[in-house]
Amino acid sequence: MLTSVLYKNLNKRITSLKKQFLDFPPGDSPLAINQDKLRAFKLLVHAEIESYIENSVLEVLNKCKTEWENNKRIINPLKFLTMFSTSKFEANEKQLIKEDRITQILESFKKSIQNNNGIKRKDILLLIVPLGVDYSNIDQTWLSTIDSYGSSRGRVAHNSFSVQQQLDQNDEINNLDLVLQGIKKLDMKLQKVSSSHRHPF
What we know:
Layout: H1 5-21, H2 32-71, H3 76-84, H4 98-114, H5 121-128, H6 140-158, H7 169-195
């Protein structure tokens, strides 16, 4: 299966950031100016990855919404979303009609995407499992890797230069490569769930 346009754009953006910020020999990583470049690179890449994940999930959600509104067709991601929905059923006027209930579930999950704030393990699982990505088929090593990557971004973003651990260009590139390998697999999983015939029960 081919990767999505969103994934291809993510790779292009990261390649551009590498050219802008990693324009020095790896051995010069300890220099203060290069430490600033490495920190800027980490923060910007993290933002691009977070945006990619949110937009990829939103793309699946929008497909669910379009199929429902235009054809009254419940595709598989919406079936899973209905099962995982945290939108409490209170038997009020907006929930008694099936169409309204489904609309509410779609809107509720859209808010979850908008309120996302990171790429750690929990953040990712909250966004992809409700759409039908099988947890047992997610690489647990990759989840640990991206969780660590998200934590390292937090340390850079919330601590002053004087107390931060020194960054190394080779380490940053190697860690990012591992993260991107997993994201490529995730990209294909998200595309697959939209066309899958697997049922949630």
